[in-house]
Recover the amino acids of this structure.
């Protein structure tokens, strides 16, 4: 990385700024993944790395290679596009698996599975008051 | 024309991808175009649903809004994590009834919600059109409902439906 010393000062500052933003947000996201308590809280932390964590590092890379090669280098944008498009696939898969598991355990903290259609349940109203324990739980814990 | 180019948007994005990776030159443009057109024929054999873009101009507005929201929520979530998970509200689930039915629009909404830190797409019931979100810092449920319905879903319906 010897040629990095030839960078003009404005480019070096800009690259360092974006690299620090990207790396810092990814680090905070990983820290959150480690520290936060519930699964559904932890799912939020890595999205820092996939949104501005990736964007910051990609921007730094675009500026660095564009200045070094004196032409517009943009193929890093493809990395960003693929990360953005593919993140929801794994994230939704994970969260739906967790929801399925918690519903199977009858965990009161997760939203219950909606009945497919209300019409059949109107005929026998005795079986209605099942979801009442939902309210008692939320205030205490 | 539509037999020859069944998926024009796919062809354009494949050519752009090719040129970004291989460098901009006439040779690469021709090679990339031929590859993209043949690839689009192969894709057409699978017979996927074809998305319709009705309003191109609103796409830019949507990008700008989402970009701004991602920056804002990055800062919000990062500061909550740095303060050891302390926040004003609490994290909770939230059910949102959706009017958006178009599969491409729903896919876009999933991308927007997932790439915005602080909101996570948990489940979508297509029979009842109810989306379950998990919000990291839930203070005002109406504000989030308003954000999803009027800020994203309205634009997505304008663009895709």
């Amino acid at each position: 990385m010897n040629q990095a010393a030839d960078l003009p000062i404005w480019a070096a500052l800009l690259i360092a700024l974006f690299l620090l933003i990207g790396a810092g947000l990814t680090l905070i996201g990983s820290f959150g993944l480690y520290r936060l308590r519930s699964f559904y809280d932890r799912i939020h932390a890595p999205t820092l790395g996939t949104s501005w964590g990736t964007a910051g590092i990609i921007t730094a890379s675009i500026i660095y290679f564009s200045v070094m090669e004196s032409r517009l280098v943009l193929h890093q944008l493809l990395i960003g596009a693929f990360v953005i498009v593919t993140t929801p696939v794994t994230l939704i898969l994970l969260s739906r698996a967790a929801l399925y598991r918690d519903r199977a355990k009858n965990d009161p903290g997760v939203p219950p599975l909606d009945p497919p259609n209300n019409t059949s349940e109107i005929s026998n109203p005795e079986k209605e008051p099942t979801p009442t324990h939902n309210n008692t739980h939320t205030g205490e814990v | 024309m539509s037999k020859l180019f069944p998926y024009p948007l796919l062809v354009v994005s494949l050519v752009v991808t090719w040129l970004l990776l291989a460098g901009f030159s006439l040779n690469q443009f021709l090679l990339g175009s031929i590859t993209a057109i043949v690839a689009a024929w192969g894709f057409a054999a699978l017979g996927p649903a074809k998305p319709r873009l009705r309003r191109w101009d609103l796409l830019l507005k949507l990008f700008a809004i989402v970009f701004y929201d991602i920056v804002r929520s990055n800062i919000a979530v990062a500061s909550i994590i740095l303060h050891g998970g302390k926040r004003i509200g609490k994290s909770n689930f939230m059910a949102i009834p959706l009017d958006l039915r178009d599969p491409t629009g729903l896919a876009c909404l999933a991308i927007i919600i997932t790439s915005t830190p602080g909101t996570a797409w948990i489940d979508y019931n297509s029979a009842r059109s109810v989306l379950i979100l998990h919000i990291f810092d839930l203070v005002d449920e109406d504000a989030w409902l308003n954000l999803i319905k009027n800020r994203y879903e309205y634009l997505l319906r304008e663009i895709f439906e």
About this structure: Chain B is about 60% helix and 15% strand. The helical segments of chain B are 8-22, 26-46, 56-82, 103-115, 141-160. Chain B has a mean pLDDT of 86. The first helix of chain B runs from residue 8 to 22.
